[in-house]
Design brief:
29% strand; 4-stranded antiparallel β-sheet; alpha+beta; 2 helices; 14% helix
Length: 69
Amino acid sequence: MQQAITGYHQDEYGDWVAELACGHGQHVRHQPPFFNRPWVVGEIGRNEHLGTYLNCKKCEEPAELVPPG
């Protein structure tokens, strides 16, 4: 499910995590040749990508069924 980037924070290793409109987070790394996101290394680039949509894999996971009771 596509969700907009609303902000960023760094994890315990210093990697950038995009905060998504759904409340989930997704790492946004620049590690060529695997991930080509040079915009993530600078504040200006990150700010320019606020509102960009990323595919949130957590939103696509089936919801856990909670037994009634």
